[in-house]
Design goal:
Number of strands: 3
CATH architecture of the largest domain: Orthogonal Bundle
Shape: globular
Number of helices: 16
Distance between the termini: 46 Å
Number of domains: 2
Structural class: mainly alpha
Low-confidence stretches: 1-7
Oligomer: single chain
CATH superfamily of the largest domain: Citrate Synthase, domain 1
CATH class of the largest domain: Mainly Alpha
Helix content: 55-70%
CATH topology of the largest domain: Citrate Synthase, domain 1
Mean pLDDT: 93
Length: 375
């Protein structure tokens, strides 16, 4: 007899929702992008190499990478109409709302063809333009200037740092940002990626899928943990104070962001890499408090809850050391994860079926309709 009993799982945890050749995550697999170990990529590759790998399935040859970078540089420009939209978005808007609006506006200005034949061009455009969008909006509303978005800086990492600080970035900072972008680039069927695939499955355009993904990433349970982690770290002035403070928070059942993961059991393989960068950047800027405070928090969380830091926790301090405003931590996530989103959009389109799951009804039983005069 067929077993009709359905396994009840909250949040679809453990449910296989599709097949993908892009990424492996979790116990027994580690973290790989198209078969390449994340540690090798983060230590040896440039973000542009990884973006190319995710989008097109293979690591680029030197000539292919040069062409790809050139196209990304050309994609940084902001046409006047998009600049005007960014100027109209209020200064106190959440940066993620600004990024959503800008992406949606691009969909109006630079439409995708009905047959999707220009999807690769749009992919390059989005990867190139998101850093321009964020830094232009930032400087217009916070420094009262309209920046020139063109630059000779080849990398997305270096370009973002250059435009944010309006000066050439340190080599160490560019390397750290490269690693961070690689670590954030892809992570299987996470909430924002799955959102992008659902929208894509309806045969909608790229801009709609990416805009929806940004909306999912905006939520603090997905993309805002690095911001929350920085706010937490900033509460303490010493490791001793942090230890006492975290113990007190745990006693009061407070949520500590940046720890644990829905997929990883014992550790987040990305954390090892970003923690090393956080330590190097702390030494570079001469900050002797934030990294020890972070380690103290990590120690308490493991000893008390057996929870390990995920990528977001030490990303927070790494970004802080590079002078990046906390509100922009999650928009940086967009700059990176767009490469993964796009890869999944391409993959979904290659063998598309509408994603439409069912639900288990838990509402009231059949009820007789009562006329409004008798209620």
């Amino acid at each position: 007899m067929e077993n009709t009993q359905k396994k009840k799982v909250g949040g679809l945890a453990g449910i296989v929702a599709g097949k993908s050749a892009i990424c492996t995550v979790g116990t027994g697999h580690g973290l790989n992008y198209r078969g390449y170990d994340i540690q090798d990529l983060a230590m040896e590759a440039e973000f542009e190499e990884v973006a190319y790998l995710l989008l097109f399935g293979t690591l680029p040859k030197k000539s292919e990478l040069e062409i790809f970078k050139h196209k990304l540089q050309a994609a940084r420009h902001l046409e006047p109409s998009l600049q005007e939209v960014l100027k109209l978005i209020p200064k106190d808007s959440h940066p993620m709302d600004m990024m959503k609006t800008a992406c949606a506006m691009l969909g109006c200005l630079e439409k995708e063809k009905p047959d999707f034949s220009n999807q690769k061009d749009i992919a390059i455009r989005l990867l190139g333009v998101f850093p321009s969008i964020l830094t232009f909006w930032h400087h217009y509303h916070h420094n009262n200037i309209s920046i020139d978005t063109q630059s000779q800086e080849e990398s997305i990492a270096g370009y973002f740092l250059e435009k944010l600080h309006q000066k050439p970035p340190k080599k160490l900072w560019t390397q750290a940002m490269q690693a961070s972008l690689i670590l954030y680039a892809e992570h299987e069927f996470n909430a924002s990626t799955f959102t992008a695939r659902i929208v894509t499955s309806t045969l909608s355009d790229i801009y709609s899928s990416i805009t929806a993904a940004i909306g999912a990433l905006r939520g603090p349970l997905h993309g805002g943990a690095n911001e929350a982690a920085m706010e937490l770290i900033s509460e303490f002035s010493s490791p001793e104070e942090a230890t006492k403070g975290i113990l007190s928070k745990l006693e009061s059942k407070a949520k500590i962001m940046g720890f644990g993961h829905r997929v990883y059991v014992n550790n987040d393989p990305r954390n090892v890499i970003i923690k090393q960068w956080s330590k190097r950047l702390a030494q570079d800027v001469g900050n002797t408090t934030i990294f020890p405070i972070s380690e103290a928090i990590e120690k308490v969380m493991w000893e008390e809850k057996k929870l390990f830091p995920n990528l977001d926790f030490y990303s927070a301090s790494a970004y802080h050391f590079m002078g990046i405003p906390t509100a922009y931590f999650t928009p940086i996530f967009i700059m990176s994860r767009t490469s993964g989103w796009l890869a999944h959009i391409f993959e979904q389109r290659s063998d598309n079926k509408l994603i439409r799951p069912t639900s288990e009804y838990i509402g009231p039983s059949n009820r007789a309709y009562i006329h409004i005069n008798n209620r």
